[in-house]
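Entry 14. Two folds queued back to back today. First construct below, sequence then structure tokens.
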Amino acid sequence: MTQPREVREAIMSAALVVFTEYTYGGTAMAPLAERAGVAVGSIYRHFPSKEALGNAVYRRWKTRLGAHVIDSVAADVADEPIRARFGRMWRGMVAFAVEHPDAFAFLELQQHQSYLDAENAALTERIYAAAGELISAGQARGEIRPGDPTVLMSLAYGAFIGMCASMRGSGLDEERLALSENAVWDLLRCP
């Protein structure tokens, strides 16, 4: 690795693995540097602090997860049922979690409030807002039960995180995927 971009990428990749394995709070820079194949000083040449590195890793992966969520709910076709949009969002999130299990575990199975910067907080808020807009649209059409959209979205996303955590390592087959999607939709839909 002679190019600064290669070194930065090696550090970011190693940070994701180490943060996932030991948590952000439990990670020391020496094992991270060893995993990246660089000296500890090299990390600080690319990232002024552990917080800056944590924010860079979080931003990279939360942006990618957000694309799955936002893209899946963005299209508002007048005659398309909210259920279909919800299904796209659910399966998009599943696809991300399956394709990037370490990134999903880092993002959603750890606490980040102690170090996230304003840009990452705003990114997270945009993703939640997109999902909340889907809930609100479903309520306006009478397809989703009345109630605070934030609470309903939190219940649905909490179920998703729990499902992914319980399936980590064992995989998610089509039957389990359909069961989980339908169960969460039943939680949201108008009775």
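Second construct, same run, same settings:
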Amino acid sequence: MKPFAVILLFFCLTFGAYSAYASSDSTLTELDQMADEALQLTKFSRLEEAKSILERFAVRFSEEGVKDGKFTMDELRVLTASHHEALRAVTNINMNVDERIRLVTSFRLAADAISSTHQPMWIEMEASVMRDFQEVKNAALEGDKEAYNQSLNSFLATYTVIQPSLKIDLAADKLQKLDSKITFIDRYRSDFSEQEWADHLESLEQDLQKIFSNPDEDEADPSLWWVISMTGSIIVLTLSYVSWRKYKGERQQKKRKDSNN
């Protein structure tokens, strides 16, 4: 194969890889924008419009996301469940406004978690989550069982907003550890004991801080970087080979001229 043909072939392969990723990014951006629009409409109580956007999201998600295998099975499961809850929120006129917004916000954060490659939006919930948790901890340290239960309910409501996003972004074992501690303090709240609960809450607080403190690393598909690296290397080698052939040809031509002279 001629050098130019080699370069052209690998240029086409690289461009094709970039095109595939660009198409995928375009779909994710579109889905993310739909989720955001649904949330904004919900906040202004424009529920019919929010419902229409969520239904369009489902169609687009099914056509592009599911069909083309853009998402993992866990992502499909989590986002589908979160979307179902958001749709239920905007169609149930008897639902409390705060609860409705909470469910749609949870869906919006989950959609962002799938599309974000660096700083997901759920990270911005750190202040709210940790503030609510601090109230739980304060009530426990004061031995106020009634305040403890009220604060714990508020914390759990806030935590469930980011829980679908955590299922998408966190390793399964890390999330399981966190959820098991939260389930424990919720299930056995009637056995409230100031000192014992202080130890549980201290451990839980450290886990919560960890999930917010580690920024996301670049999660670009390693296969893309492999293609880029290999293509670059081959192009460099090809150009080097072409230069060497040209140099060798010029030397031979010069020798022939010297012999004739």
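Quick look at the second one. The two ends are 36 Å apart (CA to CA). Residues 4-23, 215-228 have pLDDT under 50 and may be disordered.
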